[in-house]
Structures are given as C-alpha cells and as structure tokens.
Amino acid sequence: MASSRHATETAYAGEASDDFQVFGPSVEDGTTFTEWNPTEDTVRPVRGRHRVARQRSGMARSSAVLGVGMVAAIGAGGIATAGPKTSAPLTMPDLSGLTDDIPGAEAFLPEDDLSEAAPAAAPLTQATLTAADVENGHTDAGEALRARILAQADHQQSAADATARQEAVAAAAKAAASEAEKKAEAEAKAEAEAEAERERKAEEERKRKAEEERLRKLAASYALPLANFQLTSSYGESGSMWSNNHTGQDFAAPSGTPVKAVHSGTIKEAGWAGSYGYRIVLELEDGTEIWYCHLSSMTRTSGEVTTGDTIGRVGSTGNSSGPHLHLEVRPGGTDTVDPLAWLRGKGLSI
C-alpha cells in the first residue's frame, strides 16, 4: 500500500545510504527531501523484539460495550437476577485484507483465521427499546426495562392474587358444603329423634287406651259387692275384735242389703263358719276365693253364678259389732290380700 506520509526515518541531502536516496526539491538552506516508498528490496522481515503487537482494538471495544450495557441494565431496574450466566459474543476485525496491501503482513496474523471463527455479534443487554415501549412513551432503554420488570411483577402478583382468591372461594365453598352437610345430618337426626319420640308417645297412648279398654271390659265383668256402703275396718288393721291383724275389708251397710257376686264363679261353700257367722265362699275361674262373712241370710248356696248376681244379705252374725260385710280375697285359696287393691286392679273405682 502506498503511503502519502513522510517516512519515519529521513536523511539530509547529500547523506546517501543503501536504504535512502536524496532527491527532490530543497528547502531554504538548500537541503532537499524525498518521499520514501518502500519496496520489496528495501523492506526487510521484522524479527525479535521489534515484532508488532497483535491488534486488540475489537476486543477492547466489545468489553467496553458489555460494561456499559451492564451498568445500564442495573441502573434501569435496580434489580439483580440470579439467572444462568451467558457469555457475550465478541467480534474481531477482519484482518485478511491487510495481506493484500501490506507486504509481509502474514507474519502478524494468527494461524487460525479469526474472521471465519467469529459469529455474528449479538445484543449484550436486553435493555433496548421496543415498539411497545415507544408507544407507552418510554424513551430511555433502562426505564423501559424497569417498566417491563415492574409490569411482569404486577402480572405475577395479579396471577397469585387470583389464584389465592380462587383457593379461598373453593375453601369457602367446601366449608359451606361441609356445614350444610352437617346441618342436614343434624336436622335428619333431630327429625329421627322427634319421630321416635312421637312413636314412643303414640305407643304409650296406644297402651294406655288398651289398658283402659281392658279395665273397662274387666270392670264390666267385675262388680262391687254392695251398691251402697261405708268403709270401716281396713285390711291389716289391728283391734280387740280379732286375735290377729284384720284379714279383710269391712263394708258397713244396713242389715238386709243385697250382697252381689263380684265375678262369675262357682259357690264352693255356704254355711255357718264360727266367728265369721254365715259365710259364702265363691271360687273364681283362676282359683281365687272370695269370702262373704257375717251374712244375715244366704240367697245362693251352690252352683255357678255370674257377675252381679245376689248371693246373700248383709247381717251381723258371728263375731260382729254391727251389720256389715266382711270381705276377704284369697288368691289360689291361700293367704289373704288387700281386697280394695284387688278390686281396683280389676278396674273398679273404690
């Protein structure tokens, strides 16, 4: 390549050497200079310590651009990320053309051709303006990047809030369903208990009515021994008129008052019985014996009788202090029981 500049080494006119020739116009003192154009004969190979250093201007420029991009990105958002580190592609100047213009330039080139190995340069930072940034009024790349980061954070927060709301709604719905299920179970249980109580009360009422009906029918088949009377000496009462406690119930009534059969049965015995006076023994179907004592007379002395039949009359025979009916009840023909309790158990009011 031809140079239009003066050579780095010159010689005054008249000082000729093997490498320089003096010719051309002269200056005021008469000295003349000439333009030095090297040729293959005059250029010798450079060896040793005079070797030219390899060019590094492309790498230095790329490193500077990388540093500026990093400062711009950090200053724009103030946010550091821990993403994976990527190596920034570097570009080297194409030195292949130097061999065409400078003789001997092949000595300064590396063995590998850097122009073929270097890939296309890529952006060193994402802090660049986009069409959307321009439309939004951003003119600074750092501010645009910061705005995008904040917008992405807002979007992520909105998505998280929406997810939280959905989870809260689902949890509330689940809790409401569980509460409704528990309420329905409680209502069903209460209804079942109420129904059971109603059935219990209905059963009790049915039993009560059945008992009333049984007693009514039983009362229809049983009768009081006297129509008009006054209760005097009671069952188990002590007194001087008898050796042990009173074994029956006394019904005081005028002498000659009709005495009735309390239930259908068979007259087992009728006649004089010592201290009992005239006595009739009526045996019922279940073996219970009814003793009618102190009678003035006996209308029926044998055979079967029905409820309400007159079998004798009130008197004061035997060990008696006045006209009355001494009534004893002996289940199975053995020991006595309280006549009033027995008659009430048959549905009679007394």
Automatic annotation (TrEMBL):
Per UniProt, which keywords does this protein have? Answer: Membrane, Transmembrane, Transmembrane helix
Hey, what's the signal peptide range on this chain? Answer: none
Quote the CDD domains the UniProt record gives. M23_peptidase
Gene3D superfamilies, sorted: Glucose Permease (Domain IIA)
Show the stretches that span the lipid bilayer: 64-83
Superkingdom of the source?
Bacteria
Instruction: Tell me what this protein is called.
Output: M23 family metallopeptidase
Source species: Streptomyces chumphonensis
